Amino acid sequence: MGDKLVVLGAVIVLVFLGIAIFGPQFAPYDFAQQFRASPGELLPISVMSTTATGERLLLGSDALGRDMLSRLIYGTRTTLVISISSVLLATILAIVLGSLTGYLEGSLFDEIVMRLIDALLTFPGILLAVILVAAWGTQGIEIGPVTTTPEMTIVFALVFTFTPRLTRTMRGSTIPQAHRAYIKAAQLMGMPAWRIVAFELAPNCLTAVIIQSTTYLGLAVFSTAGLGFLGLGPAEPQPELGKILARTQEYFLNRQFWHIFIPGFTISLLVFAFSVLGDGIRNVLDPEYRFEKADV
Amino acid sequence: MNAGTAPDRGARDNNTHPLLQIENLRVHYSAGRQKLNAVRNLSLSIDAGQTVAIVGESGSGKSSAAMALVNGLAGNGEWDADRIVFKGKDISRQELMRLRGRAITYMMQDPSGALNPVLTVGDQIKRVLKYHTSLSKAEREIRALELMERVEIPDAASRLQAYPHEFSGGMQQRIVLAMALAPDPVLLIADEPTTGLDVTVEAQIFTLLARLKRELNMSIVLVAHDLGVVATSADEAVVLYAGKVVELGSVDALFRRPRHPYTIGLLQCAHDLHRDNILNPIPGRIPGLEERPTGCVFHPRCAWKTEECESIDPELAPLDGQRVACIHHQDVSAATPNS
């Protein structure tokens, strides 16, 4: 049963990845195009709307007359890009910081980094990301000559939220390995510290952090959509799943509340698929868990 | 010699100086405000092509002494020496440290731990070559294979792609040895190289070490607690007790005529198949770093102890080519017959 769920999760994730990558090819319309029911009047909110020019919109339109299906496809793309790149960046950062602090356990560098991380850990869950995005704004920030895109702002905020815990995990798995004889052997061979950390130590300590980061993918989708829902997503007209969900509130006025299920179900499905897949990856990578299962 | 051989291989033989001389090596560990002496004034002189053994019980400081030579002491450990002479030239500690990994390599005790579990053994050997030689990628490939063959690993070409866990303990130690030989060292420090291996494998490793030492004209510092091993594979031995050298000399002399009560005790502990003797252990145990007695460190366990021993810390005194640190050495050697 568990294995089948993992396969299902993997299939769903792959389908969503396909949508994200090839979305622009098969999205029926531009996500920002506003359709009109008649000249001068925006398309009303409904399913299977037909526009003044005769296009039929499969999932209807939003309050601004834009095609729901196209926005959903582009929104999935935005959400996935933000969540996957934030988890990826956070994981890389955590591997670097965690292996260095673990190798240099007790040093000044270790103390400084870990106390900063402790400080970041005091913010519960998504709150830190909310504060950061609110502070930086959703229009992008200027860092010297480079201006970040709004998406990058959200990615940075999420990296700040994910990195502390991942770094702790990486450091935790690095410390016991750092005291193993092969590290001593590498030191006695006269290898420089950075080589030892990068090539000898870190590759032996990745399992736990990779397991944790895969489970973070679901959380990242949830957080990205959450930020979007709270109005901290990318600026209009860029679609994003959380933002689309927030806009479905407008359907309530039309007594078509079930519209909320279109983006809502999409988000749930993505989070579910990533969670199941993360569990599956853990089962493969974590031998202890595998043995536990075999005993039963 | 193939690619990767040090160019001064021949020049080394013309040298009449000892390869490495250390005068008064001291190692101490700091614990809080205390400084605990692990090794006191150990002097070593290693000739080219010679094997010098550092012998002692656990806690005698033999590993600390060996680790100091490659600057591998634990974080709270520090070492110092009055003089370090390498190939007839005075060098600083920093210069000695720069030799490690190239001219001086270290072979770890526990072979299964000394190899990185996630890399193939071939990669690990090539990594040493990459870091310590100027060989090209293709040359490193050839040299790695040559090293595997040199340490007598059967089917070396295909075994390069194997991971450490696919090898037995003896084979793992051969790979550790191959890695230690990769930079073409002039001195190999082998810290109990056969710990955890069974007797037949132990014999194979020492035969291999002896052959390689001859072929490569390499010197070896052998850290050992097993006198049998020392008798068969070392030229000179330094007997260490509680961080202090109690006796040193050629292995022949030490075994024929031990002068220090501790050396005698150690020899009596050794198995002897030909004499149907009962093991005769030395009473008591080696004192810890913070409980070293005054006077001669061995006096609490010594059968020759007199009152003077509790106050006088004997110096190493020369005696027929050996050197011994015991105020009663004349009585001791008179009482013990040549064996």
How would you describe the overall organization of this protein?
By secondary structure, chain A is mainly alpha-helical. Chain A has one domain: Orthogonal Bundle (MetI-like fold). Helix content of chain A is 69%, strand content 4%. Chain A contains twelve helices and six strands. In chain A, helix 2 runs antiparallel to helix 3 (108-121), helix 4 (127-136) packs across helix 5 (150-178) and helix 5 (150-178) packs antiparallel against helix 8 (206-232). The mean pLDDT of chain A is 84. Chain B folds into two domains: 7-238, Rossmann fold (3-Layer(aba) Sandwich), CATH 3.40.50; 242-335, no CATH class. The longest helix of chain B is centred in the middle third of the chain and has 18 residues, at 199-216. Chain B is globular, with a radius of gyration of 21 Å. Residues 1-14 of chain B have low confidence and may be disordered. The A-B interface holds A 180-182, 184-191, 195, 199-200, 203-204 and B 70, 72, 97-98, 100-102, 105-106, 108-110, 113-119, 127-128, 131-132, 176, 179.
Mean pLDDT of chain A: 84
Low-confidence stretches of chain B: 1-14
How many domains in all of chain A? 1
What is the average per-residue confidence, as pLDDT of chain B, rounded to a whole number?
84
Number of strands of chain B: 13
